[in-house]
Write a structure and sequence with these properties.
Radius of gyration: 15 Å
Helix content: over 70%
Number of helices: 3
Shape: elongated
Length: about 90
């Protein structure tokens, strides 16, 4: 496998995690405008993206295949918990 193939495979593994984190962070900032007004968008998105990427990697390692529904369901749960923790429990 060439280095460019490795890059494409890694980007395919991380892309759903990043997209989920970005969309969920934007939605949280939009839905809870007043509560999350003091918190910058990146402070929500970066930890959520890391959590989602780790869950995606863990799903690949545990299940042996990328893109399983169990991995995506766990990613959505981890995304919601990360946003809740970062946005409402841990204030700057």
């Amino acid at each position: 496998m060439s280095p460019i193939d490795v890059l494409w495979h890694l980007s395919g593994l991380v892309a759903p995690a990043l997209l989920t984190a970005v969309l969920a962070s934007l939605a949280a900032k939009w839905l809870w405008r007043r509560e999350l007004a003091a918190l910058p968008w990146l402070r929500l998105a970066v930890p959520t993206a890391l959590v989602c990427a780790l869950i995606s990697l863990g799903g690949l390692l545990l299940l042996g295949q990328d893109g399983r529904m169990a991995t995506y369901g766990t990613m959505v749960l981890g995304c919601a918990l990360s946003l809740w923790w970062r946005g409402f429990l841990r204030r700057p």
